[in-house]
């Protein structure tokens, strides 16, 4: 992978990558085109200048001929130089070690040029003296003999021509090249942004729709624009979302039907159970007097009626959570007093240790708090080992109630499932005394309060269930 | 350790007990239904449409020593009410024809007869509507006979006047409100106010300690004899009804004031 590729690949956002690609393309094209143009134009300008200058010089030299005689006098050298000079050209005439005065210093002339001139050629060279570009043209006047052959006369003439006008033209060309590069850059950026919007718009739209879908809004769809590949993707997305919505809708419908069925069944069971429950006391009383099997049967029916009632009540309770019809009947409750009442009402006061700071008032549903605490304590008493302890921890914005026991604790594979409905850690036991819904109901009740219920093992030993209740700033009223 | 749990509601030990003195404490009455406890026989009107439930409850209440009249419909119940006036009505809310709420309203408009609602669905809306219609208490079906019995005895104690109040003078004046604790008569500007037993008991408890705040749970224990965490909506509904009868403006109560975060308070005037 080359450097550009790495740069493109390394850039995180599609927009940046597009921008970089467009700018690289635009600038390299501009540089190439403008650069080639510049070099060509520069060469043409210089070539033309040289040709013109050389031609002009040779023509002018011809007007000086024929020479008065060799060797030329100092005055003749000066005159030659003077006649060849003008504001643009400075000339110097050399004859061996003499040269015209006032013109350029012969020592500053490039030696290669002088070697060429000595050989009898017309030579020229561009040199830069003190930062100014100049064209130096040199030639040697040749003598023509009668037979037509020519001889070097030893008279060398150099003309130094300033190139500042041409330099200016070339400078303008360079500026133009830079300018066109800059314009190309701006265009490239604009085009990249435009193309980015064209491509990124649909991408952003897709992302928005995907996010909404991810957040559970199954009605999320992407707008389809055009017929390009991105539109195809949007269409595919919409199709997928539609199918998903259908399936989820179907699943939800089936689930709610199943739940409604449970609720309906529970309600239907309640009426006969109400009749049966009404007479369990009669059965209990009479069982003592009934002989043998009949008494045992009566007791069994009474006991199982209570269990069935409990199960049906719990099922109805949980269906109300599922249906979303469970509501809070909030009251300002002294938490310590409420927990004590729960323990007292079930005859657990002696069996459970408490650490309940006085005067903690929380706004909650006392009946539901009772259900939560009773389920947790009952669970600890049944499945943990004594001592079972209840304590409250008051935090600034939260109230925690911990129910702990000193049993073996919960197995790690059981821990995530303790609040599942009808979850039984010990599958060997066919039927428990409880409905199997107690902890699930406690969990739902905690959630209804905007709190949570967690299960964990204590570092020492035993399980600890913690009820976390949010506690908004309690307004203190008049306590007179 | 097994995480499945025994539903504690089902094994709720019945600790409703006999009250000694005005809210001074409780002693356990574990032997409800035991023939050794002597109590006056009371007449219960049971209005319940399901034959089996009706029969079962009739059987249980009769064994508890009540005289039970039963009705399968509301209309029949109102008819019986006229012929043999009961001490307490146990009323199913879901009835064919005239429903429980309507019967509740009719009984309440006619007098102070205590009403206990029997609700098959533990529907909050049902409970609230029933309490607004004037019911004194409610139980959720299936109900254990001893629980229903305890509630019946609690409302009966309220209408019977309850234990003698020791301490404050029998006739108190609070502004234009006069409370005669001995005769159990409340009058406003000289006119007697007709209060249901629960409303009267609530007013007596609150006015016994003017200026002192009683929490809903305390009031549930004092008035309804629910000595475990009860439904505070019972208190709120009863306070609403009471305010409608004794306050000039229910929205700006003078006698029964709400103390946010704590409960209710009588006065101060």
Structural features, described:
The complex is a heterodimer of chains A (480) and B (269). With 480 residues, chain A is α+β, with helices and mostly antiparallel strands. Chain A folds into three domains: 6-170, Beta-Lactamase; 227-326, Helix Hairpins (Orthogonal Bundle), CATH 1.10.287.130; 331-470, Histidine kinase-like ATPase, C-terminal domain (Heat Shock Protein 90, 2-Layer Sandwich), CATH 3.30.565. Helices cover 54% and strands 17% of the residues of chain A. Chain A contains eleven helices and twelve strands. Chain A has helices at 3-10, 14-64, 74-84, 111-118, 164-214, 229-278, 280-287, 292-323, 335-345, 366-383, 438-448, and strands at residues 89-95, 98-99, 123-129, 132-144, 150-162, 331-334, 352-355, 361-364, 388-394, 398-404, 452-457, 463-470. Chain A is rod-shaped, with a radius of gyration of 53 Å. The model of chain A is unreliable at 475-480 (pLDDT under 50). Chain B is an alpha/beta fold and 269 residues long. Chain B has two domains: 18-28 and 41-159, 3-Layer(aba) Sandwich (Rossmann fold); 171-266, Winged helix-like DNA-binding domain superfamily/Winged helix DNA-binding domain (Arc Repressor Mutant, subunit A), CATH 1.10.10.10. Chain B has helices at residues 51-63, 74-83, 100-110, 124-132, 145-159, 197-208, 216-224, 233-246, and strands at residues 18-19, 26-27, 43-47, 67-71, 88-92, 115-119, 137-140, 171-174, 177-180, 185-188, 191-193, 213-215, 256-259, 263-266. The longest helix of chain B is centred in the middle third of the chain and has 15 residues, at 145-159. Chains A and B meet through α6, α7, α8, β6 and α9 of A and α1 of B.
């Amino acid at each position: 992978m080359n450097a550009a590729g790495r740069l493109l690949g390394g850039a995180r956002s599609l927009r940046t990558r597009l921008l970089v690609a467009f700018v690289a393309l635009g600038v390299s094209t501009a540089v190439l085109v403008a650069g080639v143009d510049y070099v060509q134009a520069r060469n043409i300008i210089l070539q033309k200048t040289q040709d013109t200058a050389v031609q002009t010089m040779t023509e002018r030299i011809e007007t000086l001929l024929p020479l008065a005689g060799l060797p030329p006098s100092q005055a003749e050298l000066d005159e030659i130089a003077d006649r060849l000079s003008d504001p643009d050209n400075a000339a110097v005439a050399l004859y061996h070690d003499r040269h015209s005065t006032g013109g350029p210093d012969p020592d500053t002339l490039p030696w290669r040029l002088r070697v060429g001139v000595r050989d009898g050629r017309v030579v020229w060279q561009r040199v830069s003296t003190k930062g100014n570009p100049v064209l130096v043209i040199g030639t040697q006047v040749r003598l023509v003999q009668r037979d037509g052959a020519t001889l070097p006369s030893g008279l060398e003439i150099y003309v130094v021509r300033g190139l500042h006008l041409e330099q200016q033209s070339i400078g303008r060309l360079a500026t133009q090249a830079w300018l066109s590069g800059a314009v190309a850059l701006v265009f490239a950026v604009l085009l990249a942004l435009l193309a980015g919007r064209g491509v990124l718009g649909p991408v952003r739209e897709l992302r928005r729709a995907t996010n909404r879908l991810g957040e559970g809004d199954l009605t999320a769809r992407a707008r389809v624009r055009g017929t390009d590949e991105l539109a195809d993707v949007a269409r595919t997305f919409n199709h997928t979302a539609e199918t998903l919505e259908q399936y989820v809708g179907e699943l939800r419908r089936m689930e709610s039907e199943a739940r409604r069925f449970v609720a309906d069944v529970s309600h239907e069971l309640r009426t006969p159970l109400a009749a049966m429950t009404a007479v369990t006391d009669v059965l209990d009383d009479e069982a003592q007097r009934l002989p043998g099997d009949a008494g045992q049967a009566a007791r069994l029916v009474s006991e199982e009626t209570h269990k069935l009632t409990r199960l049906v009540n719990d099922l109805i309770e949980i269906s109300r959570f599922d249906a979303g019809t469970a509501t809070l009947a909030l009251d300002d409750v002294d938490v310590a007093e409420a927990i004590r009442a729960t323990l007292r009402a079930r005859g657990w006061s002696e069996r459970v240790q408490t650490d309940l700071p006085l005067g903690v008032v929380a706004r909650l549903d006392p009946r539901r708090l009772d259900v939560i605490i009773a389920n947790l304590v009952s669970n600890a008493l049944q499945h943990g080992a004594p001592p079972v302890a209840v304590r409250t921890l008051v935090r600034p914005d939260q109230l925690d109630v911990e129910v702990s026991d000193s049993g073996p604790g919960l197995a790690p594979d059981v821990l995530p499932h303790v609040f599942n409905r009808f979850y039984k850690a010990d599958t060997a036991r066919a039927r428990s005394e409880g409905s199997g819904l107690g902890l699930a109901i406690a969990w739902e009740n905690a959630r209804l309060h905007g709190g949570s219920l967690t299960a964990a093992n204590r570092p020492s030993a035993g399980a600890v269930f913690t009820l976390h209740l949010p506690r908004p700033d309690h307004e203190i009223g008049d306590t007179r | 350790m097994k995480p499945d749990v025994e539903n504690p509601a089902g094994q709720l030990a019945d600790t409703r007990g006999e009250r000694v003195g005005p809210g001074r404490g409780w002693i356990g009455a574990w032997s409800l239904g035991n023939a050794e406890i002597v109590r006056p026989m009371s007449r219960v009107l049971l209005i319940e449409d399901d034959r089996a439930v009706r029969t079962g409850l009739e059987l249980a209440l009769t064994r508890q020593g009540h005289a039970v009249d039963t009705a399968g419909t509301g209309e029949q119940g109102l008819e019986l009410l006229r012929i043999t006036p009961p001490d307490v009505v146990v009323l199913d809310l879901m009835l064919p024809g005239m429903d429980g709420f309507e019967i509740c309203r009719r009984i309440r408009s006619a007098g102070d007869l205590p009403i206990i609602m029997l609700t098959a669905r533990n529907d909050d809306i049902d409970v609230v509507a029933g309490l607004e219609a004037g019911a004194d208490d409610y139980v959720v079906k299936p109900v254990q006979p001893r629980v229903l019995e305890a509630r019946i005895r609690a409302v009966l104690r309220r209408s019977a006047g309850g234990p003698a109040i020791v301490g404050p003078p029998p006739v108190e004046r609070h502004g234009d409100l006069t409370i005669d604790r001995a005769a159990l008569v409340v009058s406003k500007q000289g006119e007697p106010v007709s209060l249901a037993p629960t409303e009267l008991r609530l007013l007596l408890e609150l006015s016994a300690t003017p200026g002192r705040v009683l929490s809903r749970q305390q009031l549930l224990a004092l008035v309804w004899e629910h000595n475990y965490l009860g439904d505070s909506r019972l208190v709120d509904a009863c306070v609403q009804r009471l305010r409608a009868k004794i306050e000039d403006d229910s929205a700006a109560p003078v006698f029964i004031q709400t103390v946010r975060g704590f409960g209710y308070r009588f006065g101060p005037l």
